[in-house]
Write a structure and sequence with these properties.
about 0% strand, single chain, about 210 residues
């Protein structure tokens, strides 16, 4: 399938990238290294995320995703219907089907703060009205890419900017979380946005 091709292809290309770096290390400049990190980011994270999204949309909402994503989506449905997601149980929903049994505490209450649910409601309702489908990576993937691109641009003049990009965005934990969907990607975006706005404001004041 297209999804599996994207995932396998991304893994193969990422495995080949270090070999290219070693072979060409004497000719690589910082600017070229930054572009290589950008390419690796898209190959290791963005393309596989798209693949997993396709898998979930074709196989069903219980596939290729974490329970946290499912619970927030179900909670957003409840809120859109006028129900309180913190006082409503989650039996008979996609969350119970993901667990496969009723013995999980998350089936009895919403385990997350309101922000992901509140942000999800208009996006989820809009996507379903326009396209008839929704996956939380419709929100998380653009936010993840935006966070990377802001840092990629903002850190370009820092001596250790490229190393910071790799440490923050290409460490195994964050790459894995970007594939399966975790809500701290949203938190990271707000931190990155706050940092960018703070730097912009500082330069603005210095200009005066």
């Amino acid at each position: 399938s297209i999804a599996r091709f994207l995932i396998v292809g991304a893994i193969a290309l990422c495995a080949a990238m270090p070999v290219l770096v070693i072979l060409c290390r004497s000719r690589i400049q910082i600017r070229q290294l930054r572009w290589m990190v950008l390419i690796i980011f898209f190959l290791a994270s963005v393309l596989p995320s798209i693949g997993k999204t396709i898998i979930r949309l074709t196989k069903g909402p219980e596939h290729a995703v974490l329970d946290s994503v499912i619970q927030v989506e179900v909670a957003a449905d409840m809120l859109a219907q006028g129900r309180n997601p913190y006082t409503t149980e989650y039996f008979g929903t996609n969350l119970e089907r993901w667990y496969g049994h009723p013995y999980r505490h998350a089936l009895y209450h919403l385990a997350y703060l309101p922000l992901p649910v509140l942000i999800t409601v208009p996006i989820q309702e809009g996507c379903r009205a326009l396209f008839g489908l929704y996956d939380s990576r419709f929100l998380l993937l653009p936010v993840w890419v935006a966070s990377f691109l802001i840092c990629w641009r903002r850190w370009r003049n820092f001596a250790w900017g490229t190393a910071l990009l790799v440490a923050v965005f290409l460490n195994p934990t964050m790459v894995h979380d970007s594939l399966v969907g975790r809500w701290h990607i949203l938190s990271l975006f707000f931190w990155v946005l706050a940092m960018d706005l703070a730097v912009r404001r500082r330069f603005l004041w210095m200009g005066f």
